[in-house]
Structures are given as structure tokens and as C-alpha cells.
TrEMBL record:
InterPro entries: Nucleoside_phosphorylase_d, Nucleoside_phosphorylase_sf. Residues 245-270 are annotated as: Disordered. This is Uridine phosphorylase. One of its GO terms (molecular function) is uridine phosphorylase activity. Residues 31-236 form the Nucleoside phosphorylase domain. One of its GO terms (biological process) is uridine catabolic process. Pfam families: PNP_UDP_1 (PF01048). GO terms for cellular component: cytosol.
Amino acid sequence: MKDTLTDANFPRTADLRVYHLGLRPGEVANRIVTVGSPSRARTVASHFDTTPKPFELASERGFLTITGRYKGVPVSVVSIGMGHPNVDFFVREVRECLSGDMLIIRLGSCGGLIDVPVGSVVVPTSSVAVERNLDFDFASDVGSTEKPYRISKPVSADTELHSQVHKSLAAVKPQHWTAPIIVGTTNASADSFYSSQGRQTSFPDQNEYLIDHLQASVPQLATFEMETFWLYHLAACWSGRKGKLDKTDAPPLATGPVQPTTSDPPTAHAVSNPLAGHDTVIRAAAAQMVFAARASRDFITPEQVSVLEEWTAKGVLDALVETDIPTTRMHAEEGSVWAL
Ligand code: R1P
């Protein structure tokens, strides 16, 4: 990003572009699929309508956003890379580019901790965070009173969106795809692909019994990956903000759609006021494709990935457009990249 940024608290360019995703209002839609890789983003976007021509923005920090319409409804896919910190950039920066509600479905890959074949799709009801305990002395492990890993309480998906993801995936699953779709499970989102997921490397990670411990302490645990917890967590926090705001002297917030400034310099009002209404919601759910079966050590083939990503992409897009957002809680179409 070479443009001048203003406000160290929440940096933006003069034309309201956020610092890491590079987006400005009108370039990201209220309904979003988030994925880890640009290639998966392109698979999702391959289902978009041809009119209007999908808008694409690749940021210098590796985020890719493609926005268009699917079955006539404005949608975006955002590729964010890996891990909780990138989910944090994504949710917070997109939130400040959008008026109204946000519906977010993560379409990601995962490791399966239950006895299901690779190619299964898990729709997790809830997620826990698994974090390396930095107060544990990994180098010596002598007399440490700390545990090497911390497991958070679970946080839940949005109930309606979660059910719709399951329903829409089931509707598009090809008959020849024999691996199942599984619901009613809990995901574990780890802060490392290696240590906090029980993988053995050359480092003294003290994680030989981590998976056994997780399975014994987290009911319905089924998958390991690295993003879902933070997505569900931020969505749940945002939903909770309304009550707090009602009780405090909060600064004024925009309550209706804000006209995006796409070419003219922003007004002082547009810069100083959050671009989201205080009564909005963020609703999140996930579909996790089992690429690795941790017990059998099977790994999915590239050919299987292509087929699996193709139909799951359609399933999550269907789930987004099947889930209602009241018109009054949609970002303005005028001036947006999805305007017809
Ligand atoms: C690790 O290989 C990555 O794959 C999984 C993990 O959560 C992590 O991001 O998800 P994605 O395929 O969505 O990136």
C-alpha cells in the first residue's frame, strides 16, 4: 500500500481503503465466503454470474477479494491465508467497509479426528481454540506448573446459517461422492499447524498426548484447523455489542446504509463515523473439507480436491443466498461494484 494513511487507530487511505485487505466501501458484499487460498477463491468465484463482471482486488498483504453476484444476489469471496490473526484482519477490516449485516461462511480444509474418509465435509456446530501456552517452559520442562496447551470454551456457529449450510451442501453433493457430510460436531482451531495439532517435529513441543487429551475433554470433537474459532468468536462478540451500546454513552453510529464513496474524496463525516449500524449482526458458519485423516494418515488427492471444492463452493454460495438479510440491512447498491 503506497497511499497516505490516516488514523493510527484504524488506518485507511484518503479514499477509505483499509490497510491490509485494500478494500473500500462498495467493494465487498454483505454475504461472504472466506477461504484460505486464492485458487479456492477462484473456484468459488467461477460460480458467480457473468453480469456484472466480477470485481477483483489482490492486496499487497496477500488477501484476495472477488465480488460479484450469485443467482442475482451480491456476494464476495475473500481469500485470507491461514490462522486466527488473518481472520481477525479479515473480519474487522471488512466490517468497516460494510453497512448492514454480515453473513460469513468459511469453506476450509481440515484434519479429521474421527473415523471418516478424506473427502468428508464437516459442518461444525461449535469450535474451541487450542493455543500453545507460552508460559510453559518447552525447552526444559522441569518442574513446570503450567500445561503446555490451553483449550478454550466452545463458541457456536449461527444456528440458522449452520443449518442452511448443511441443507445446501446436501442438495448439491454429487451422487458419486460417497464420503459423508457430518454435523453436530465441535472443531478445534489451533494456533499452529504443527505443535498445537499434535504433529511431531524436531522441536520439543510436549504434544504427544495432546490429541488424546482433546478427545477426552472436548465433547463431539471432530476436526482440527486454524480459523473457525476466531470467526465464530468475533461474530459472537459483535452480536453482543448491541446490548453494551444501548447502556453506554457510545459515539454516534450510522444506523442505515451508508453511501460508499468510490471516486470522490471522503467527507469528514464518512471518515469519522463507523460504517456499520449498531443494530447489525455478524452471522458465521463453516464447512470443513477433510483433507487429512489423522488416525489413518490418509491424505486427499489433488483430483479429489478439485471435485470436492467445486460442489462445496456451490453449496456454501447457495447457503448464503438462501439466508435472508432484510433490505434495510444491506449495503447500498449505488456506487458498489455489484451495481447492475
Ligand atoms: C493449513 O494447511 C491450512 O489449511 C487449513 C487450515 O485451517 C490452515 O489454514 O485451512 P485452509 O485450507 O482453509 O487454509
